[in-house]
Design brief:
With about 325 residues, the protein is of the alpha/beta class. It is built from ten helices and four strands. Strand 2 and strand 3 form a beta hairpin.
Length: about 325
């Protein structure tokens, strides 16, 4: 048993590293998106992006549009995104072993981080190169009707994909705005797929604007500028996804409402006088590690302390909507010893 000097009031402040959003996030934290819905959203986005990439590539070959070529790279990059997310989700389901006692759930964070580093950035750079090369060549467009038709189809498919993503994220969203959800969610699939769907629709609008202006003015530079803008859009999304997934990969604490619920669950256990040095960390979207010191009466027997720990752990698992691993250390205050 360890002696602790710190009083109960001097526990460290628990905060969420990507922004504390207050009580409004409580609903989102008590209801996470089911894994089946997350998988459905990713697969829907994959199917849509593969079909769109093929159509855009064909339109780019027929019209010679650099904006359409950039958009085909965009959709191809998004398709690779979904494949990486599905691989990460599959690997994360591996059971715990001797080398990985907390399991492999962080694979979901690793692969989402790879998406931000490789696919978004590589796609963005290639799109910019495509636009710059066409800007220098000043090549005229072919029949723009193919581009308009494909962009219209792409808008419908991307809208369908975004609708599926929104429906999958609604249970976790609760009273939050979508931006707040992206800041507090522990599920990287929501971050990646939602941002890429929005980015895809924005890219379609940019490509449509570039092709339209190039057709009306007869100046192919507008098409090339649109391709460069699409590349810069991909880079911006890549930076945003990188920032959010990097924080998850390093390891975030549970949200403030969850931490407070855990503190109250432990503190209300018979035999526990106070909770000190409470720490939490997500090792996966649905996996939480909790460590804390519990202040007990120095006259309490070992059997009674063990019983209190078992009861406290059971109470925490009832209030925390995660697979939870707990470490509770009995302590006494110097004034009580």
């Amino acid at each position: 048993m360890r002696v602790v000097r710190a009083p109960h009031q001097s526990h460290p402040t628990n905060r969420i590293s990507r922004g504390q959003l207050g009580h409004a996030s409580c609903t989102a934290l008590s209801a996470s998106t089911p894994p089946s819905d997350q998988r459905a959203a990713v697969i829907t986005a994959l199917l849509a992006n593969v079909a769109i990439a093929i159509a855009k590539l064909g339109a780019a070959a027929i019209t010679g549009s650099s904006a359409m070529a950039a958009e085909s790279l965009h959709s191809l990059a998004d398709s690779v995104n979904e494949i990486l997310l599905l691989v990460g989700a599959r690997r994360s389901r591996r059971p715990a072993d001797v080398r990985h006692p907390f399991g492999h759930a962080r694979y979901r964070y690793v692969y989402a981080f790879l998406v931000s580093l490789t696919v978004f950035w590589v796609g963005g750079v290639l799109a910019v190169i495509e636009g710059v090369s066409h800007l220098a060549a000043r090549e005229p467009l072919g029949d723009p009707r193919w581009a308009f038709a494909v962009l219209g189809l792409a808008a419908l498919l991307e809208g369908w994909s975004l609708r599926t993503t929104i429906r999958a994220g609604r249970p976790a969203k609760g009273a939050l705005t979508w931006w707040q959800l992206l800041r507090v969610t522990k599920a990287p699939e929501i971050i990646v797929v939602f941002l890429e769907d929005l980015g895809a629709l924005a890219g379609i609008f940019i490509a449509l604007s570039g092709v339209t202006l190039a057709t009306l003015t007869g100046e192919g530079a507008w098409d090339a500028v649109a391709a460069i803008a699409i590349g810069l859009l991909l880079m911006a999304i890549g930076l945003l996804v990188n920032r959010e997934t990097q924080s998850l990969l390093i390891g975030e604490s549970a949200a403030p409402e969850v931490v407070e619920a855990i503190r109250q669950a432990i503190g209300s256990t018979d035999g526990v006088k106070a909770v000190v040095d409470l720490r939490t960390i997500h090792v996966g979207p649905d996996d939480l590690v909790v460590a804390a010191g519990i202040v007990v009466d120095p006259t309490t027997s070992a059997t009674e302390i063990a019983r209190a720990i078992v009861e406290a752990e059971a109470r925490v698992r009832r209030v925390a909507p995660f697979r939870t691993v707990m470490y509770l250390e009995p302590r006494v205050r110097e004034s009580d010893s």
